[in-house]
Amino acid sequence: MIEDPRIDAYIERAALFARPILTRLRAIVRTACPDVEESIKWSSPSFGYRGSILCSMAAFKQHATFGFWQGERVTGDAPSADERSAMGQFGRLTSVDDLPDEALLRDMIQKAMALIDSGTKPPRPVKHPKPPAELPDDLAAAIAVVPAAERTFTGFPPGQRREYIEWVTESKRPETRQRRIAQSVEWLAEGKRRNWKYENC
User: Fold this and answer.
1) pLDDT tens across 157-181, in order?
2) How much is the pLDDT for 36?
3) Could you tell me if 114 and 142 lie in one domain?
4) Which helix (H) or strand (E) covers residue 38, if one does?
5) Are 50 and 89 part of one and the same domain?
6) Is 194 within a domain?
7) Domain span at residue 74?
8) 86 and 169 share a domain?
9) Does residue 127 fall inside a structural domain?
10) Which end of the chain has fewer beta carbons closer than 10 Å to its terminal beta carbon, N or C?
């Protein structure tokens, strides 16, 4: 077992109601998976097994959560509306009584371990392409005046065009929008992408 003292500190900092929940979950995971690898990922306690994420838990102001990286492949149930409103597959946990039966939870942990042993990877979420961003008239007119800027802009893939369009359209004040349009044309004329300053960092 690889223990991480940061999890002890995390539990101590958690709200009073959450401490027994987190302590119980941690104990169950350790019992069910003696080879567990504790760590902190995304600012919350995470439990790994053979280099892969097994499950994780977190505490918030009014609830705690627990979930498996493999999700429904482990729990076998589609999340309810309440569960979808919180991370993990067990909804908003506000007391130890909200936890599933310990034997059932141990079985799920062992199922998650078996999935890792078999090499099964969690499914990647399907990414739906965004529709092309609509070029506003004022930006289109400014770009059209400078042929080099127009060539760069039309040569960009949709995602890079979207970065300029969103930067301009997200302006709150008219003067900010005009400044951003002028800056966009200047950068485009130089063949630069919107975030060129960060590309070589």
Assistant:
1) 998 999 999 999 999 999 999 999 9
2) 95
3) no
4) strand 37-41
5) yes
6) yes
7) 5-118
8) no
9) no
10) C
Nearest to 194, CA basis, from 176, 142, 181: 181
Alpha helices in the chain (DSSP H): 5-13, 18-32, 72-75, 81-84, 102-118, 137-145, 147-155, 158-169, 174-189
Q: Are 58 and 44 in contact (CB under 8 A)?
A: yes
pLDDT given for residue 1 in this prediction: 75
Whether the full predicted model's pTM is greater than 0.85, yes or no, is: no
Q: Are residues 141 and 108 in the same domain?
A: no
Q: Which residues of the chain have pLDDT under 50?
A: 78-85, 201
Closest CA to 164 of 175, 173, 142, 174: 142
Phi/psi at 135 (nearest 5 deg)? -75, 120
- What SS3 class is residue 56? strand
What is the token pair recorded at 99? 């936890």
CA dihedral in degrees (79, 84, 86, 91; nearest 10)?
Answer: -30
Whole-number pLDDT of residue 125: 64
